[in-house]
Amino acid sequence: MSEPILSLRGVSQIYSSRNASGWGWTTIRAVDDVDLDIREGETLAVVGESGSGKSTLAKLLLMLNDPTHGEVAYRGASLAKLGRAKRNEYRRQVQAVFQDPASSLNPRMTVEQTLGYVIRRHGIAAPSDQRAFIVRQLASVGLTPPEQYLSRYPHQLSGGQQQRIAIARAMMLEPKIIIADEPLSSLDVSIQAQVLQLMQDLRRRTNVGFVVISHDLGAMQSIADRTAVMYRGRIVEIGQDIYSRPVHPYTQLLLDARLMLDPRGGRIRAMAAVQAAPSKQSVTGTGCRFRDRCPYAVEICDATDPALRKIDDGSTLAACHRTEELAAGSIPAKKSRASTAIT
Amino acid sequence: MRAPGVEADLGVPLLDVRGIKVHLRVADRLVRAVDGVDFRVDTAEFVGVVGESGSGKSTLVRAISRLMPHVRVDELSGHLRFEGRDILGLSDRELRALRRSRGFSMIFQDPLGHLNPTHRVGRQVAEALSPDSSGQPERARVLRLLDEVGFADPGRVARRFPHELSGGMRQRVMIAIALASDPKLLFADEPTTALDATVQLQVLQTLYRLHKERNMAVVIITHDLGVVAELCDRVYVMQTGKVVESASTLDLFERPQHPYSARLVELSSHRLDFRGGEQ
Questions:
Q1: What is d(CA A311, CA A315) in angstroms, rounded to the nearest whole number?
Q2: Average pLDDT of span A5-27
């Protein structure tokens, strides 16, 4: 395995806001004591429900947020202490693509101006070559004929085309890694498939790695080398085959919540599976933060917060006290303690 | 389990739309958002409308429910009957009466945008109640509706403001408001697109249960074929303002006729083909 290009060590991001009454503050641990290594050239998917801290994680990796505790390191050097030259290198090699391409592109700049700005800012092509360079970039993200797009404004492009421009902008610096926060969720299904295909092509051509934040497990399975499942600020499971062999009960819950594409076996019609509701209050005190929704929770889950640890065969890490028992199939699911009703 | 299709033979369909056209004026250009669509919903049927953004599916449903306040409509024509009654020619007052009692209701993708932030939930549900014939107190009817959409403690929810609720709870409140007029037909425009998968499943289950319990027809707009496979009896596939395929859900998945529907099915199942391994 290659060395980690980005790594997180004990990283927490705590947001605080004033209570509704105006007295006192509420703190939210959006990311809570996370360790993570991202290797060069790999595609890491980060999945989880809203509020699980996925986007905060992306912001930390992009240096848009400074962590409250812990350290984010780029090639072993702490981001907080990067010198000017190293920071510039980081800014070039770690790029971002966002959810809503329309708002991540300047509406008053044409495609050529948008991409030309990056070229001048980073000096990656001589001014005389600028146009030819942009044309090559557009072609490489599948916008053909490229000349036709140069003078367009973002509103003259479809969502999929806008997302391609955003990817072209990220790719032209030849980054080592692209952090993409929900790059698919504002796109139609057929366009999503094209963008996923484009990401695959780019990986093969340039060995760029991706960190893709998404709530769409189906799309992630088709591109991810590894997938991290986040729950309330923690990574509860990370591994290569969490889709076919989930270890953590939360991963199982997410997989169960997907809709079936089988018109003969619709589960909603049968009204079989009923999910526990996510309770709004975060679980307080010590103990596993998933225990209020977990069908397998026992005393130890109330007492101790499970650490992320290797599960027997090695490639998967999970944070659950009872994985071995669950794998052995020795415990039946009891009824979830958080009832199915919404309070 | 399919809902029996016998209602179709009993004469008048619940909703019968023929050759509807909605042409809009957008920045001086004529947009044929809906261009000659035939659309039918029978009593107690669950019907899906799928298509990509811009295919006209939302416009179609809004035109049918006559909710088009923000756009300039150039042409709205066709044959549009609800329980055999022409609703294209109805006055605003007659339309309001239809929405208010035993007619149709609508829920939307973004409940926060359709709830009043300054009123408590209970009051907003009460506002939508159909004129009462049973003599029950308003409060009891509101609480029963909130109970029906799955709240464990309706009294507490009734006292909340929309911003105090989670996305799934807000969508349930929207459904309660829509049900307050005791509709025979519910239009749901991407009701779960903004929700997490686990919450989506709960809301869809609620919707399906209400459809069964109340014998209420539902038209659900979605771009997610998973929603269709789980819920719908029949589907309309729309592309650029036209219905390109109308089929039973089973036929759509197993024998799609139009190349566009075939591609939609193929794309969706391609992305989810990993399911096989874990069952």
A1: 7
A2: 86
- Residue A99's SS3 state is coil
Answer yes or no: are the C-beta atoms of B217 and B186 closer than 8 Å.
Answer: yes
Contact of B172 with chain A, judged by CB distance below 8 Å, is answered with yes
CB contact under 8 A, B152 and A190: no
Q: Which residue has the higher pLDDT, A137 or A273?
A: A137
- Check: CB of residue B194 under 8 Å from CB of residue B109: yes
Q: CA angle at residue A200 from A308 to A238, to 5 degrees? A: 5
- The residues, ordered by sequence, that sit 6+ positions from B246 with a Cβ below 8 Å of its Cβ are B38, B234, B235, B236, B237
pLDDT tier at A95 (50, 70, 90 boundaries)?
very high
β pairing state of B15-26 and B46-50: unpaired
In this complex, the residue of A253, A263, A277 whose CB is nearest that of residue B202 is A277
Is B52 within 8 Å of A190 when comparing Cβ atoms? yes
Quote the ipTM score: 0.78
Measured over the CA atoms of residue A15, residue A17, residue A23 and residue A26, the dihedral's sign is negative
**Number of helices (H), then strands (E), in chain A:** 12, 12
In three-state secondary structure terms, A195 is helix
- A273 at B interface, C-beta within 8 A: yes
The pTM assigned to this predicted structure is 0.83
The Cβ of residue A273 has, within 10 Å, a number of other Cβ atoms equal to 12
Domains of chain A plus CATH, in order, are 40-67+77-231 (3.40.50.300), 249-343 (no CATH)
Is B224 at the interface with chain A, CB within 8 A? yes
Q: Is the bond preceding residue B259 a cis peptide, omega within 30 degrees?
A: no
H, E, C per residue of B180-237: CCCCCEEEEECCCCCCCHHHHHHHHHHHHHHHHHHCCEEEEEECCHHHHHHHCCEEEE
| B122 and A CB contact within 8 Å | no
pLDDT tier at A238 (50, 70, 90 boundaries)?
very high
Q: What is the mean pLDDT of residues B35-44?
A: 92
DSSP state letters, A62-91: TTSS--SEEEEEETTEEGGG--HHHHHHHH
Q: Is B162 helix (H, G, I), strand (E, B) or coil?
A: helix
Query: Which domains are delineated in chain B?
Result: 43-66+90-273 (3.40.50.300)
- Cα–Cα distance measured from residue B185 to residue B82, given in angstroms and rounded to the nearest whole number: 10
Encoded tokens for A240: 């290569």
Taking an 8 Å cut-off on Cβ atoms, the answer to whether B268 and A189 are in contact is yes
Contacts of B1 in chain A (CB under 8 A): 269
Using 50, 70 and 90 to split pLDDT, how confident is the model at A285? low
Q: Give the H/E segment covering residue B139.
A: helix B138-148
Report pLDDT digits (tens) over A139-185: 988 888 999 999 999 999 988 899 999 999 999 999 999 999 999 88
With CB atoms and an 8 Å threshold, state whether B254 touches A263: yes
Tens digit of pLDDT for each residue in A317-330?
A: 999 998 888 877 76
Task: Answer yes or no: do B53 and A188 touch at CB < 8 A.
Answer: yes
8 Å CB contact of A189 and B278:
no
Q: Provide, rounded to the nearest whole percent, the portion of chain B with pLDDT above 70.
A: 90
> What is the per-residue pLDDT across B49-73, written as a single tens digit (0 to 9) for each?
998 888 889 888 888 887 765 556 6
- The C-alpha atoms of residue A87 and residue A94 are separated, in whole angstroms, by 10
Query: Which residues in chain B touch residue A341, judged by CB atoms under 8 angstroms apart?
Result: 150-152
Any idea what the Cα angle at residue B244 is, between residues B240 and B248, rounded to 5°? 135
